[in-house]
């Protein structure tokens, strides 16, 4: 847990999943935990790279958001995940099981976007207090803004469109907070293909090649190239 909080974002989903069974773990959980420890030992030299920036005004927050759908076989709840990058550096990440059962992939992704948007606003306010202005805080018609990136077109449309559809009117109202933030210009939404969505690492177990590919992008491996 400590490693995930500090530097090992690649294990966020795994640790979140295993932490659901602290009181009565079985042999399967024990084997999974040993596999995590072997993985840590084999990747002990992995670290996060923070490239230098020439100008503070070039800083931009990019928040990748993603969700699985009914991936927890015990209660059929989905997992939300986000990764926030300041410039090219990964500064925060999180994986969390959703508090209610989503009845569609759109709903699961929308809930994940709401979860990520609140953290994005928190980071923006913290940077403002440190007088480190990101593009969104000094944006004009000729400047870009911070982005919340999602991988589901339905969820993006739901955030931008106030019309109530039969498939979305049951969604808890507090998740619609993302709409208010979008209208206020706090950030903009952008679609990101699944293969480029770094938050995919925080929502589900991935095949080894894809897991390593996303982990390298997050760490800015390959001699600091992100």
Task: Describe what you observe in this structure.
The protein has 226 residues and is of the alpha/beta class. Helix content is 37%, strand content 14%. The chain has a five-stranded mixed β-sheet with strand order 3-2-1-4-5. A hairpin with a 2-residue loop joins strand 2 and strand 3 (89-97). The longest helix has 25 residues, at 105-129. The protein is globular, with a radius of gyration of 18 Å.
Question: Could you name the key traits of this structure?
Answer:
226 residues, alpha/beta, Nucleotidyltransferase, domain 5, five-stranded mixed sheet, 8 helices, 14% strand, globular
Fold topology:
Elements: H1 2-6, H2 12-18, H3 27-42, E1 61-67, E2 79-86, E3 89-97, H4 105-129, E4 147-150, H5 153-160, H6 177-183, E5 188-191, H7 208-219, H8 221-224
Parallel strand pairs: 1-4, 4-5
Antiparallel strand pairs: 1-2, 2-3
Helix pairs in contact: 4-5
Low-confidence stretches: 136-143
Based on helices, strands and strand pairing, what is the structural class? alpha/beta
Strand content: 5-15%
Main sheet summary: 5 strands, mixed
Query: What is the domain tally?
Result: 1
Q: Could you name the CATH class?
A: Alpha Beta
Under CATH, the topology can be stated as: Nucleotidyltransferase, domain 5
Distance between the termini: 25 Å
Mean model confidence by pLDDT: 84
- How many whole angstroms does the radius of gyration measure? 18 Å
The second-level CATH architecture is 2-Layer Sandwich
CATH superfamily: Ribonuclease H-like superfamily/Ribonuclease H
What percent of the residues sit in helical stretches (DSSP H or I)? Answer: 25-40%
Strand order across the biggest sheet? 3-2-1-4-5
**From N to C, what is the helix and strand string?**
HHHEEEHEHHEHH
Count of extended strands? 5
Shape annotation: globular
